[in-house]
Amino acid sequence: MSRRSRRRAARRTPLKPRPLLPALAIVLGLLLLTGFVFARSGLLRRGPSPAREVLPPAEAVASALPVAPASTPSVSVQTPLGEVTWGNRARRQVALTFDCGPWTTASTLTPILDALEKEGLRLTFFVTGQFIDQQPALFQRIAARHELANHSYTHADLTTLTEQEALAELEDTERLARRHGFTTKPYWRAPSGARNATLLARAAEAGWPTHVFWSVQRVEGTWVSGDAGDWQQISADEVLERLLHAVDTLGNGIVTVQHCASAQTASILPQELARLRARGFAPTTVSGVLAP
């Protein structure tokens, strides 16, 4: 074959494709490395961030319970066995309760406790085990003066857990409270108010016979709730007006709920207490409002 023929044959010969395996290996390695970094940083973990409490609207919880016909002008929610939402209606009292989730810090809880001590009040605090673990000094300050109740250990939705897991949430918190010389029995409140008949029964068997919800009533087609809404993105003034509206509308013996991690509650509590006093209401514990 001549030199010219060999050059023509070389031009007709297709180039061999380069192997793809090294390139694929590099891409795969980069993907694995990226996944590792994200996993370590927590960006791929599922579930809500513990930065703030996320609860369903009280109306949503209340509407899931059996109630009287909607045509009735004033409808009270029928509570399950082993649950209270109201106290003695013969006395002008209100049970102000506070939920201390795992994200509670001194920045909001300290002014709340200061305001209560200034007024000489003893109220009810529902504490999580993680709060006790993370803020032992604040827990001691609460327990030395106020009534304690159980709010689970991690603030998980107990209805999504097994019976054993849900009960462990209560028992782990109780164990921590006892290490400090206190108890969370006999009252408890499920995180976000998420509970069912099985949970109420198991909790009662374990020493928490009374689940404390908050007062909810349908008045002229609108739900009025003792949930102050301080876990929502609303102003402090809105939190105050919502709580006072519940007190004015629902009256004696209602149970309200606010949150230890709420900046709104921390800022308006002195005014809240003053306006309750002006209305003739005495803030008290759950035990106090349930007394005959």
Account of the 3D structure:
- With 292 residues, this protein is of the alpha/beta class.
- It has 2 domains: 3-41; 58-290, Alpha-Beta Barrel (TIM Barrel), CATH 3.20.20.
- 44% of the residues lie in helices and 15% in strands.
- The protein is built from 11 helices and 11 strands.
- Strands 3, 4, 5, 10 and 11 form a 5-stranded parallel sheet that branches. The protein has a 3-stranded antiparallel sheet with strand order 1-8-9.
- α4 packs parallel to α10.
- The longest helix is centred in the first third of the chain and has 21 residues, at 21-41.
- The model is unreliable at 6-18 and 31-77 (pLDDT under 50).
**Could you tell me the number of beta strands?**
11
Number of helical elements: 11
End-to-end Cα distance: 116 Å
What helical percentage do the residues reach? 40-55%
Provide the β-strand percentage band. 5-15%
From the helix content, strand content and strand pairing, which structural class follows? alpha/beta
Listing every helix as H and every strand as E from the N terminus to the C terminus, the arrangement reads HHHEEEHEHHEHEHEEEHEHEH
In total, how many domains does the architecture comprise? 2
* Shape estimate: globular
Which CATH-level-2 architecture of the largest domain?
Answer: Alpha-Beta Barrel
What is the CATH homologous superfamily assignment of the largest domain? Glycoside hydrolase/deacetylase
Poorly predicted regions: 6-18, 31-77
Question: Nearest-angstrom radius of gyration?
Answer: 28 Å
- CATH topology assignment of the largest domain: TIM Barrel
Oligomer: single chain
CATH class of the largest domain equals Alpha Beta
The major sheet is characterized as: 5 strands, parallel
Mean pLDDT level? 82
